[in-house]
């Protein structure tokens, strides 16, 4: 195998895992192994396949701890058009969802088996396994997670095939972003049932529709991350969340942000609670994490 051939494979693998926090470590390991063993082209391809599998498992390993009771909805998007997938992720995150994206059917099933999702968006035409086959695996496992099929195909036969395979909705490209968001929200509502959207702890209320924090007659609007963090805390008062759990639940394992961002946003929330005169506060539990509790008299 020539150096140019190896560089090509190396670059492909680097791009395929771009943005994952542990990617650099494994890339360096790949280079070291190649130089030590002088692997052949075939051996490098085998190593690359194992390399991708290990990375997928490492990225999602901590997500097994995510609980069902949290109102922050987690969506899986499987779309082989990288820019479209990133755009949909950005769009959904603006609407308070937590989003994981993958670009082939194999990774979609890996993520699905290790994370509890509130909805799944599947492109039909994907490498390894197409969307219909992924959907078939999901339904064979007796999962009722709502699934939306996303494709450039608009023929009636394709829509019927998707719906018969167990899809809950079907959206043809190109589509409006407003329609996409509305359909995803409808899927999640049908799955969980539509319940009250105001959470109360102490003298403080969080409006989950308006993303407002209210205490008496005063109210403050929260930004995306503030809302997701406070929603998590207020649904689990007195529960101690580790920094790692908060990072995973609100920012996701694929985020480039450092763990310091958790402390920063908790500081923002503390200041807002104080300015409203709230009788609740986020306390630091040394060596463990953070907990929302009512102030002691």
Task: Describe the protein in words.
The chain has 297 residues and is of the alpha/beta class. The chain has three domains: 3-61; 66-192, Response regulator (Rossmann fold), CATH 3.40.50; 198-294, Arc Repressor Mutant, subunit A, CATH 1.10.10. Helix content is 49%, strand content 18%. It contains eleven helices and eleven strands. The protein has helices at 3-16, 23-37, 41-60, 82-94, 105-114, 131-140, 156-164, 177-192, 224-235, 243-251, 260-276; strands at 74-78, 98-102, 119-123, 147-151, 169-172, 198-201, 204-207, 212-215, 218-221, 280-285, 289-294. The protein has a five-stranded parallel beta sheet, sandwiched between helices. Helix 5 packs parallel to helix 6 (131-140). The protein starts with a helix and ends with a strand. The model is unreliable at 5-24 and 55-70 (pLDDT under 50).
Features:
11 helices, five-stranded parallel β-sheet, four-stranded antiparallel β-sheet, 297 residues, Arc Repressor Mutant, subunit A, 3 domains, Rossmann fold, 11 strands, alpha/beta
Largest sheet: 5 strands, parallel
What structural class should be given to the helix and strand makeup? alpha/beta
Count the strands?
11
Radius of gyration: 22 Å
Shape: elongated
| CATH architecture tag of the largest domain | 3-Layer(aba) Sandwich
**How are the strands ordered across the major sheet?**
2-1-3-4-5
Low-confidence stretches: 5-24, 55-70
Quickly name the level 1 CATH class of the largest domain: Alpha Beta
How many helices in DSSP terms? Answer: 11
Order of helices and strands: HHHEHEHEHEHEHEEEEHHHEE
Q: What is the total domain count?
A: 3
């Amino acid at each position: 195998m020539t150096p140019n051939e190896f560089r090509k494979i190396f670059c492909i693998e680097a791009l395929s895992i771009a943005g994952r926090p542990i990617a650099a470590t494994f890339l360096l390991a790949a280079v070291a192994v190649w130089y030590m063993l002088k692997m052949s082209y075939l051996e490098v391809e085998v190593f690359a396949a194992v390399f991708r599998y290990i990375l997928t498992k490492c990225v999602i390993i901590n997500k097994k701890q995510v609980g069902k009771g949290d109102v922050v909805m987690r969506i899986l998007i499987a779309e082989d058009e990288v820019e479209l997938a990133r755009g949909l992720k950005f769009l959904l995150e603006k609407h308070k969802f937590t989003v994981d994206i993958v670009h082939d059917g194999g990774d979609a099933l890996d993520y699905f088996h290790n994370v509890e999702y509130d909805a799944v968006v599947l492109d039909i035409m994907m490498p390894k396994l197409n969307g219909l086959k992924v959907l078939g695996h999901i339904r064979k496992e007796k999962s009722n997670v709502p699934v939306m099929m996303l494709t450039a195909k608009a023929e009636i036969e394709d829509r019927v095939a998707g719906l018969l395979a167990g899809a809950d909705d079907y959206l043809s490209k190109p589509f409006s972003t407003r329609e996409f968001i509305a359909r995803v929200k409808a899927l999640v509502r049908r799955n969980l049932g539509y319940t009250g959207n105001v959470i109360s702890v102490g003298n403080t209320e969080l409006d989950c529709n308006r993303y407002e924090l209210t205490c008496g007659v005063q109210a403050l609007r929260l930004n995306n991350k503030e809302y997701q963090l406070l929603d998590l805390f207020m649904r689990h008062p007195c529960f101690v969340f580790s920094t790692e759990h908060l990072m995973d639940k609100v920012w996701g394992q694929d985020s480039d942000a450092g763990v310091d961002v958790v402390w920063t946003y908790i500081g923002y929330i503390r200041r807002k609670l104080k300015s409203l005169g709230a009788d609740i506060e986020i306390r630091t539990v040394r060596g463990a994490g953070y907990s929302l509790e009512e102030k002691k008299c």
